[in-house]
Design goal:
InterPro entries: Aminopeptidase_N-like_N (IPR045357), Aminopeptidase_N-like_N_sf (IPR042097), PepN_Ig-like_sf (IPR038438), Peptidase_M1 (IPR001930), Peptidase_M1_dom (IPR014782), Peptidase_M1_pepN (IPR012779), Peptidase_M1_pepN_C (IPR024601), Peptidase_M1_pepN_C_sf (IPR037144). The protein is of the alpha+beta class and 882 residues long. Helix content is 41%, strand content 21%.
């Protein structure tokens, strides 16, 4: 699949492997400094491929022995590949034995087999298995695995691998063994191994089919009390997948293991999911409501991969969205179904869309833009992106929209009937959905619909209204376009489902429907109306597009007050805020922003609304992010955007002072803690209110509300309330922020995930007078900071470079200097993490001078580093490309 470390791989060049590997027997003698790996494989030639040598991938391995059918054989090395030429002729299987060693304790890349906190873990997706043994490291080579683990019993009492435990016992000399057999064929990226000092929460369940299963969550000693929510989320996931899609748990046991050193959120290795502790550990004292929600979502996501990714996997890595986009969609549906009532479902949908629009839309418009199914890559790790995941999920969601919920389930059933145990493509999945619903509009539009997989960029839908008072006919002229992206010029029309509604002057809905836009331009016509309506377009965000409609303030205020679609109600508030911010930013005189009375009254009406959910209110009253506002501009001065947004927040804080005080008093919780949607929403609104009250207090020189926030910080019975109070003091720029931060650190100095919040809050705080970068540099020398730990690096460095544009984009370029230093430092330790940090300057071309030139210099400085990894080289090279 790749001929060398710097070779670009193209989807069009896919060829089936020249050999198949049917069975794998792995024997590990685990030692941090020198782990010995004996790999016995049953291999056979692929009769459909021209005879050729067997080329096995490897990386940082020490090779000791190669045997073919028990006999020594000649071999050679091509770069890091092991090449075997003198292999048995014909198509009969032969035995291949390879003995290697590796050094897990030195593996700072956290790919392959590595050591974290004196325990062994693996991460093999996408190409980590080659760091364990020589192998055909590609997803379409699926084999049955038997794994024997041997280790010191005292140091490593727990020995885990994929599948079912079939044997365990003593070896003498203080060592023991465990033998695991996975009954399902899988690609090597799903292999997993864990060994260490771990404790376990167990739960036995019985499926709908009457089978018994053992669920286990393994963590370090001392963390067991933080695993109840993860276990409950796992049980809910098992039940939901069986009820919603008829997909049962297929192993005797299902295991989750948490580690604090992990490049990703979690990994769906068959039956042995390895998780970042961030998405497992939670208690009301240490985790926020957001953490509880994320754990539920990620546990669901990884479990759902058991079928969508494991039982049916990807033919090649270009098909990554086959499993990731589909499974993100499934975990979104899971969270919405668990939320229950319509309002809580709507909140989840808005949160998902907000991620898409603040992260994926900019990616679509930047140098790393790529289709949901990419056409090429230099380093596959760079394509674990919001485009593949979140936009991929929206593509699947559109399929469900077009065939209906039951039709989509039929399509899933057909997909597994056809492809269970296979490595397939995105086309195979789309075809199954269409074939299961032959009478649907989707089936007829399938060839065109698949452009969502092949064309990059965010489509723009322009709507223009016409009103004929004489006939009572309202028209919406709809057109679509998509800007050029790297390597793709002109785009063909997409299939774009657009849910719509019309409201009369009093806010009553008079018409609604679904229009599927397939041409460059079409007109939707609604006759028989009594008066000119207000259009509600793209309800529920039925397609991942930018909607261009010249709404008036009056129309937006009508939608905000009356629309039956919660998404467009929230969207109306976003547009009202963005319009005001852009008008101020674009003012040639550079004058200050003054929020008008109608907007302020609309926000007051939402805040005081007697029936709206608190969670929805919090979403509406949260201003659009600085990065999102910046994306609406041709040329961006992040300092100006920051100043304008801060001004808007300060004015809302002052103008609604009494209303915020009411919201705080009415929504702060005093009873038993529960992370359910209603309780979480109340705490979120109370936290937003307290932040605005502290902001207003700074404007007025008042000490009452900061004092109340500090008291709340000290007395809170849960992390959500405590952290909301701390954030209110920090964001509000209060003098009490410093003692509160010191007290917080003293309270939670032994809680790594809580300290991540502490670092992130300081790095992401509003920049008043250029003080954030010096604080970040100082925090890098803090005894609790460790750049080798991905969570800690992300909490401080990423929170500053990627999530605090007003502080990062400094006119003196000091932020860019810091960024380049950290990218190069991380690249020598962990290229995956470094490459993600490198993406912080993706959109440098949009910056105003002098920032644009300074950013380019910083990127060029990184690009000039001679020993740069492929991960980072691909990012910076594409960023600099004309």
């Amino acid at each position: 699949m790749r001929e060398g470390q710097s070779t670009v791989v193209y989807r069009a060049d896919y060829q089936a492997p020249a050999y198949w590997i049917d069975t794998v027997e792995l024997c590990f003698d685990l030692d941090p400094a020198k782990t010995r790996v004996l790999n016995r494989m049953t291999v056979r030639r692929n009769p459909d491929v021209q005879p050729q040598p067997l080329r096995l991938d490897g990386d940082e391995l020490v090779l000791s022995r190669v045997l073919v059918d028990g006999q020594g054989t000649s071999f050679k090395m091509e770069g890091s590949r092991l090449v075997l030429e003198n292999l048995p002729a014909g198509n009969e299987p032969f035995k291949l034995e390879i003995f290697t060693t590796c050094a897990p304790a030195k593996n700072s890349k956290l790919m392959g087999l590595y050591v974290s906190n004196d325990s062994f873990f693996t991460q093999c997706e996408a190409e980590g298995f080659r760091r364990i043994t020589y192998f055909l490291d590609r997803p379409d080579v699926m084999a049955s695995y038997t794994v024997l683990l041997r280790a010191d019993r005292r140091k490593y009492p727990v020995l885990l691998s994929n599948g079912n435990l079939v044997e365990q016992g003593d070896l003498g000399d203080g060592r023991h063994f465990a033998k695991w057999v996975d009954p399902f064929r899988k690609p090597c990226y799903l292999f997993a191994l864990v060994a260490g000092q771990l404790v376990c929460r167990e739960q036995r369940i019985r499926s709908r089919t009457g089978k018994d299963h053992l669920l286990q969550v393994f963590v370090r000693p001392g963390d067991l009390d933080k695993t109840e929510h993860a276990m409950n989320s796992l049980m809910a996931s098992v039940a939901w997948d069986e009820a919603r899609f008829g997909l049962p748990l297929d192993l005797e046991r299902f295991m989750i293991v948490a580690t604090s050193d992990f490049n990703m959120g979690a990994m769906e290795n068959k039956g042995l999911n390895i998780f970042n502790t961030k998405y497992v550990l939670a208690s009301q004292a240490t985790a926020t409501d957001v953490d509880f929600g994320n754990i539920e979502s990620v546990v669901g996501h990884e479990y759902f991969h058991n079928w969508t990714g494991n039982r049916v996997t990807c033919r090649d890595w270009f098909q990554l969205s086959l499993k990731e986009g589909l499974t993100v969609f499934r975990d979104q549906e899971f969270s919405q179904d668990l939320a229950g009532e319509a309002s809580a479902r709507a909140v989840k949908r808005i949160e998902d869309v907000r991620v898409l629009r603040t992260a994926q839309f900019p990616e679509d418009a930047g140098p790393m833009a790529h289709p949901v199914r990419p056409d090429q890559y230099l380093e596959i790790n760079n394509f674990y992106t919001v485009t593949v995941y979140e936009k991929g999920a929206e593509v699947v969601r559109m399929m469900q929209t077009l065939v209906g919920r039951e039709g989509f389930r039929r399509g899933m059933e057909l997909y597994f009937q056809r492809h269970d145990g296979q490595a397939v493509t995105c086309d195979d999945f789309a075809q199954a959905i269409a074939d299961a619903n032959p009478q649907s509009r989707f089936a007829g539009l399938l060839p065109q619909f698949k452009r969502w997989y092949s064309q990059a960029g965010t489509p723009r839908v322009t709507a223009r209204a016409s009103w004929d008072a004489a006939s009572g006919t309202y028209g919406l002229a709809l057109s679509q376009s998509c800007p050029p992206t790297p390597g793709q010029g002109a785009k063909e029309p997409f299939v774009i489902p657009i849910a719509w509604g019309l409201l009369d002057a009093g806010g009553r809905e008079v018409a609604s429907g679904m229009h599927v836009l397939t041409q460059e331009s079409e007109t939707l016509t609604v006759p028989g109306l009594q008066g000119e309506p207000v259009p509600s377009i793209l309800r529920g965000f039925t397609a991942p597009v930018v909607l261009d409609f010249d709404y008036t303030d009056a129309q937006l205020l009508t939608l905000l007050e009356h629309d039956t679609d919660p998404f467009n109600r929230w969207e109306a508030a976003q547009r009202l805020a963005v319009n005001r911010a852009l008008a101020c930013i674009g003012d040639p005189a550079g004058g200050p922003l003054r929020l008008d009375a109608p907007y302020i009254e609309a926000m007051r009406s939402i805040l005081r609304h007697p029936t709206l959910d608190a969670a929805f209110k919090e979403l509406v009253l949260t201003l659009p992010a600085e990065a999102y506002i910046g994306e609406q501009l041709e040329v961006v001065d992040p300092q100006r955007v920051h100043a304008v947004r801060e001004s808007m927040r300060e004015q809302l804080a002052t103008a609604l002072l009494d209303d915020w005080a009411w919201a705080w008093d009415a929504h702060r919780e005093s009873g038993a803690y529960s992370p359910d949607p209603v309780s979480s929403g109340r705490r979120a609104l109370a936290g937003l209110a307290l932040t605005h009250l502290c902001i207003a207090a700074r404007q007025a020189g008042d000490t009452v509300w900061p004092g109340k926030a500090y008291q709340r910080f000290k007395d809170a019975s849960n992390m959500t309330d405590r952290f909301n109070a701390l954030a209110a003091l920090v964001v509000g720029g209060q003098d009490l922020a410093r003692p509160a931060l010191e007290r917080f650190h003293a309270m939670f100095r032994d809680e790594a995930l809580v300290l991540d919040k502490w670092f992130a809050l300081q790095a992401g705080a509003p920049d008043r007078g250029g003080n954030i970068l010096p604080a970040v540099r100082q925090l890098m020398h803090h005894p609790d900071f460790n750049i080798r730990n991905p969570n800690r690096a992300r909490s401080l460095i990423f929170s500053y470079c990627s999530a605090n544009p007003g502080a990062f984009h400094r006119p003196d370029a000091a932020g860019y200097v810091f960024w380049s230093e950290r990218v190069m430092e991380l690249d020598g330790l962990n290229p995956q993490v470094a490459a993600r940090l490198a993406r912080a300057l993706d959109r440098w071309r949009k910056l105003a001078e002098p920032m644009r030139g300074a950013a380019r210099e910083a990127i060029a400085r990184v690009a000039a580093k001679p020993d740069l990894s492929n991960d980072v080289r691909e990012v910076v090279t594409r960023a600099l490309a004309d």
